[in-house]
Amino acid sequence: MFTSSLKRRQFLHYLSGATLGTSLSLTHINRAFPEELEASNETIKLAREQALAVLQPTDRDLQHGLALHRDAVIFDAYGFAPRAAINGDQLKEAVLAGASQQEIQDLREEMMMTRYVTNAFEKREFLQAWKASGVTCIFQNAGEEGQSPLRLLKRLARFTYATDMMPNLEKAVHPNQVIKAKQQGISCLYFSGNGVPLTQQWISVEDELRYLRVFFQLGIRMMHLTYQRRNMIGDGCAEPANGGLSDFGRSVISEMNRVGVIVDVAHCGWQTSLEAAQLSQKPMVASHTACTALRHHIRNKPDNIMRAIADTGGYAGICCIPSFLGGQGDLTALLDHIDYLVKHFGADHVAIGTDVAYQSQNARLENRKVPPRGRARTPWRSLWPEGSLRYPSKAPQSLAWINWPLFTVGLVQRGHSDDTIRKIIGTNVLRVAQEAIPAHKSL
C-alpha cells in the first residue's frame, strides 16, 4: 500500500507523461484511464488524485477493480449527464433586457443540458467525461420538480433532444437497450421524473392520473412521489408532520405499478416511504439516499424503511452528497454506507445513485459574465431545514461523477465479491427496471 503523497506524485507524473519507477505501473494506469491522455483536464486530474489519496489501493486491487469496471454494465441509479457551461454573453443579454427570474432559470438550465450539442468544445468535454466515468447508463433526472405536465415536459424535451442529436448517446426505454449499449460501447440515458404528472383539475382520480401513461410513452421510467414538501400524494422529507400517504397517493402507486413506472421515495418523508413500500406490488426504490444508521439526515432512510424497500425487491441507491453521508464526506463515507446496506439487507438491494454531475471546465468563466441579480426567495417546493445541506468535506472531489471507476476499486478493497460488485454498480438497477415494465411492453 502506498502513502498518500507517493500516490499523488505517481498520478501527477502519469498525467504529465513522465515515467516513474514504482511498483504501481504507469503502464497499468495509462491503460486504465486512456481518456486522460487525450486532453488535459484539470477537473479530472484533481478528482482522480483525491480519490486515489483517499483509497490508497494496492496495485492488485486497482487493476482488478478497473478491469471489473470496464467489463460490467455500470448503471447510475439516479444522476445527471455531464453539464455544459452556459453561454455567459447570451445570458447577460437576457438579464440586461429584463428577463424574469423564471426565464433566466430556464435559459440557464437549457444551456447546461443541451449546449454540448452545438458547441464543439463542450461536446468534446461532454464525451470525455462520459468516457472517464466508464458509465453505461444514467437514470437521468429528466423531469422538473412538481406535478404540472408542462413543467415536467421541459427537462424531458431537453434530454430527448440531446439523445437525438449527440453521437454515442442514446435514449433507452428498456433494460435490453442498456445491455446493447454496453455491447456497442456507447452510453445511454434512462429517464426519471422528479414528480408525478397530474392534471390538477381534481375531477376524478382517473382524470388526475391519465398523464402517467402519457409520460411512460414518452420514456419516463421512474418518478418521485414527492419532492421535499407535502403534495396531494403524501409528505416529503422536509415536512415535520411526517404524515404519510394520502388516499390519492395510494391510487398513484397502484397506477404506477400498472403502467410500468418505478416508485421512487428518495425525497419522501419516512412515513410516506414506509407506506409506499407496504403498498407497492412492484419493486420500488429510494434512488439516491443514505443510511440514517450512519448519518441522521432528513434525506436518509432508517432501517425499517430500508427493510421495507428490500422486501419489495427494490434497492436503495447511495448518493455522493457529503452532507448526507457524514464521516469525512468522501469516498470512504460512500463505501461505508454501501457496506452497511450489504451487511444488513443483502447485496441485491444496494445501488449507487450519485445525484451529482460533471461540470464543464468553462462553467466558472462563463458564469462570471452574468450580472448579479437581487437575491431570490427560497422556492417553497425545495425548502430545506436550516443546516441540512451544510457539511465540511475534506475531499469532496473524491466523490466526483467521473470517479465511478474508483468507486468500483473501493468496493474491491472492501472485500466484496465480483458478483456482489456487479449488482451494486449496475445489475440491481437493470433487474428492477426489467421487473417494472409489464410483460406485454417488453422489447
Provide a descriptive summary of the structure in words.
By secondary structure, the chain is α/β, with parallel strands linked by helices. It has helices at residues 4-15, 26-32, 42-55, 59-71, 88-96, 101-114, 120-133, 149-165, 175-184, 205-208, 210-217, 247-259, 270-279, 303-311, 322-325, 331-345, 363-367, 404-413, 418-436; strands at residues 75-79, 137-141, 169-172, 187-193, 220-224, 262-264, 286-289, 316-318, 350-352. It has a domain at 70-81 and 126-359 and 380-441: Metal-dependent hydrolases (TIM Barrel), CATH 3.20.20. The chain is built from 19 helices and 9 strands. Strands 1, 2, 3, 4, 5 and 6 form a 6-stranded parallel β-sheet that branches. A 3-stranded parallel β-sheet has the order 7-8-9. Helix 12 links the parallel strand 5 and strand 6 (262-264). Helix 3 runs parallel beside helix 18 (404-413), helix 4 crosses helix 18 (404-413) and helix 13 (270-279) runs parallel beside helix 14. The model is unreliable at 1-29 (pLDDT under 50).
